[in-house]
Amino acid sequence: MTERGVEAPWPPDVTLHGEHASLVPLTPAHGEALGEAVKDGELWKLWYTNVASPVDMAADIDARLAKRARGSCLPFTVIQDAGGRPVGMTTYMNIDPVDRRLEIGATWYRRSVQRTAVNTECKFLLLRHAFEALDCIAVEFRTHFFNLASRRAIERLGARFDGILRNHSRDRNGNLRDTCVYSIIASEWPTVRGHLEWGLQRPQGGDAL
Question: Would residue 186 count as lying in a domain?
Answer without folding.
Answer: no
